[in-house]
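Record type: monomer structure entry
Structure origin: computed from sequence
Chain ID: A
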Amino acid sequence: MDFKSTLFKKGFSSANVMKNKKNLTSLSLVLLFSLFIISFASASSLCDPSISLVSQDPNPAVPGEYVKVVFEISGLGNCNGYAVKLAPDYPFSLDSNDSLIQTISSSPYVPDTKDVWMVSYKLRVDPAAINGDYNVTLEYNEGNYMTPFYSAKAFNLSVQDSRTSFDAVIQAINGNEVSIAIANTGKYAANSVVVRIPSNQSYYQASGIDGQMVGNLASGDYTIVGFSITPKISRQNQTTGTNPNSGINYMPQQDKNLQCDIYYTDNIGQRRIASLELPLKLTTNTTASGAYGNFPGSRRSTTTSINLLSSINFWIIIALIAIVAFFLYRKYSEQIKEFFSKKKQNSSSEEAPSWVKNHRNKLKS
């Protein structure tokens, strides 16, 4: 074989090799593009929602009370059902009749709308919880039931005891007029305090006004409010005795609790009610008695009127009498002056000594 023949064969082999390389490169590009398309399609159909905590009410939560938490689960368009399970940590818990697991059987997706699912739980806060931040965990997975293969995410909830506490005693009693001393014994201020005697209690009721505005009470301060309190007369009570002087039915003389409600706004702006019960013995024919006491510390300056309605009526009557007397005097002023002038003369004659009277009679004769 000569040199030309050998060169031709070698050139032909090189051309084939180059052609094969080009074919392999094209095939690789096709395969890569196919894998990209498959991956994109898989990603677009993957159930991978986003979960967030959207609200906590109240915020912060209060020990001994409930807090409502709401989670938003978005991006459920490709999910074939979904399940969540709350795993509360201390100090949070669910009531026994509430379910930890919530599910949807299919996707909530509706065209042209948000594909979201709102999930809410009502948690009880342990009364002994101290101020701070605590976690609650939400477990979740695709499908309409929880399986061992799930994901979990922790969320932070704040707890703060913003309530204050009160103590109260019967300060003074005069007939049916009862003065109550109320002290803010907690560590927070109580704002816009209103004291009421509720009408739905068993033994007593307020006559006239049943509530008084106190204002703000700082920690350690106290104030005194007064109400006119009368016992409730029920059919059962009416058979227990009779006042021998007036014949009025009365309650037996035994201690009954007077309920008093204190409305106030705490330091996070929540309106709250504290209810107190004070032992009190009050009948319709005897002077009342109860548990007396005095509070140390500063007393908030408040103006308290007992039986304010009666005081107003008294001054209205006095004003009416004065107005009538003024108009009568203007109309009959001459007659009134003449009347008092004659009376004065007669009085002077009667009070004069006998020898003066005799002298006057001689002058007249």
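Annotation 1: The CA atoms of residues 203 and 232 lie 5 Å apart.
Annotation 2: The first helix runs from residue 3 to 44.
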